[in-house]
Design brief:
Blueprint lengths: L5 E6 L4 H10 L1 H4 L3 E4 L1 H11 L3 E3 L7 H10 L5 E5 L9 H13 L4 E2 L2 H8 L14 H4 L12
Parallel strand pairs: 1-2, 1-4, 2-3, 4-5
Helix pairs in contact: 1-3, 4-5
Pfam family, one: MGS
EC number: 4.2.3.3
Catalytic activity: dihydroxyacetone phosphate = methylglyoxal + phosphate
């Protein structure tokens, strides 16, 4: 990770106000990084905070999957995702897939205000950081030979 991080900002509907309040408080710090967000969340943050934010589509329409794709491509370094654990989401499988990719690629993820405060206030936020991604050791390098019945 470079000194300037690429941060994805995501919030479920019931958490958008909380993310906006958190982002407003941390606006100066966020403005020093590259920001990405899913649909409505990105629109709200860009409008309210006058920040440049690259936007994906809404989460239920594939935005969470777009963030996951950017993790795999090495674009997104960091996720702030205020998710609502008490509300069933129509795209729960996409959320789970995004979190799986984040763990697989060793991406820091904050899922609430406290974890976001701890991560963003880390002294590592303003430094280069060598993130270790060891996918090869956790994935079989050779598939078992396929046996076809004659």
């Amino acid at each position: 990770m470079e000194k300037q991080k690429s941060i994805a900002l995501i919030a479920h509907d019931n958490k958008k106000v909380a993310l906006l309040e958190w982002a407003r408080f941390n606006r100066d710090l966020l403005s020093r990084h590259l920001l990405y967000a899913t649909g409505t969340t990105g629109h709200i943050l860009a409008t309210e905070l006058d920040l440049e934010i690259s936007r994906f589509v809404s989460g239920p329409l594939g935005g969470d999957q777009q963030v996951g794709s950017k993790i795999v491509e090495g674009v997104v370094d960091f996720i702030i995702f205020f998710w609502d654990p008490l509300e069933s989401q129509p795209h729960d499988v996409d959320v789970k897939a995004l979190l799986r990719i984040a763990v697989l690629y060793n991406i820091p993820v904050a899922c609430n205000r406290t974890s976001a405060d701890f991560l963003i206030s880390s002294p590592l936020m303003d430094k280069k950081y060598s993130r270790i991604v060891d996918i090869e050791s956790s994935y079989p390098s050779k598939a078992a030979p396929l046996k076809i019945a004659e």
